[in-house]
Amino acid sequence: PPDARAGAMLRPRSLKRKNGHEPMRNQRRRLLALSASAATLLALAAPASAQAQSTAPSYPTKPLRIVVGFAAGGGQDQIARMLGQGLTERLGQQVLIENRPGPGTIVATEAVVHAQPDGYTLLLVSTSTGINPSLYPKLRYDFVRDIAPVWGLIRETSVLVASPTFEPKTVPDMIAHAKANPGKITMASSGIGAQAHMAGELFKLRAGIDMLHVPYRGTAPALIDVLAGRADVMFSSLPGAIAYIRQGRLRALAVTTAKRSTALPEVPAAAEAVTDYEASGFTGIGAPKGTPAAIIETLNKHLTAVAAEPAAQARFKDLGSADFAMSSAEFARFISDEIDKWTPVIRGANIKPE
Question: What are the DSSP calls for 237-280, one per residue?
Fold first, then answer.
């Protein structure tokens, strides 16, 4: 009928045929539309991705700082400044030295423990790291747990020096004298728990002798009394004593490294007379735990390169130190070994902090 035909003309044509399949022409249109949409999305996403990559932070993008637990001007401070200058040149960002002196470098270590683990705050790690856990049982941090070792660098030589008036001329003579006169030899040090003190206590333990420990407030006043004959011997840092040795004002009996030092090649190592004796110091770099591994690897690579430069090698020689660059994993094992080494010495001698 006419009205039925009119109604049919007004109804929209079905997009599907009677068999339920979409016409080929419509399929092509749909595919073209989808392709256009996908291309648009990719076009929008590509610049965003490129922008994200271009704005992703690289390392470093701002100055770094090395926190040093010693006053400015000392041997450790000099090493920190040399490393900082080398890193500045290699990283293209200034490396600042922040001195936070305090007993056993505790103040400096605490500052780094609580810093952001982003690679911009570093710690100059020293010999006290191995001594502190036993000497200070109530520390508010655990070095192994809270500090990530970045790089181990230097073995620092100490030297056993004697007053010109001290009768024994060699380490075997000194041991024999100590056994014949227990507690009569006076052993000066730069303070309780200092490297000089611990080197002497380890010597006493390994040699089976007793000496009277006389602590001073620093290396300089202790050496003054040894020079004057008011104290008999001291396990001094090599830089602090070498000028007096060369002037003939102090007598060097032995160095504390396992082998002889190139700075004093004619002076024997104490280990030549005392079995299993080694008491050299060390220096390295640490960072807050959680610092990304990629940043630690970058720092380790650049610090190793800085230490290998001729100027740095010459400076180490002047300080009586030897380069022993380590990876972060090797340095971690080394620190654990140092803690194990000093624990029985401190407990056996019942050493208490001042």
Answer: EHHHHHHHHHTTSSEEEEESSSS--TTSTTSPBGGGTSTT----
- H/E element, 95: strand 95-99
Round to whole Å and give the CA distance between 305 and 311: 12
Do residues 264 and 255 touch, judged by C-beta distance below 8 A? yes
pLDDT digits (tens, 9 = 90+) for 126-173: 999 999 999 998 999 999 999 999 998 777 889 999 999 999 999 999
CA angle 339, 136, 283 (to 5 degrees): 45
pLDDT above 80 (res 234): yes
In three-state secondary structure terms, 308 is helix
Q: Are 123 and 287 in contact (CB under 8 A)?
A: yes
Q: How far is CA 31 from CA 37, 81, 237, 315, 324, in A?
A: 10, 66, 81, 73, 66
Check residue 74 and give its pLDDT: 81
User: What DSSP element (H or E) covers 97?
Assistant: strand 95-99
Residue where the block lists tokens 């090797």: 330
Contact 195, 222 (CB under 8 A): no
In the DSSP assignment, the letter for residue 46 is H
Per-residue confidence band for 17, with pLDDT thresholds at 50, 70 and 90: very low
**pLDDT at position 290, please?**
97
pLDDT band, residue 14 (cuts 50/70/90): very low
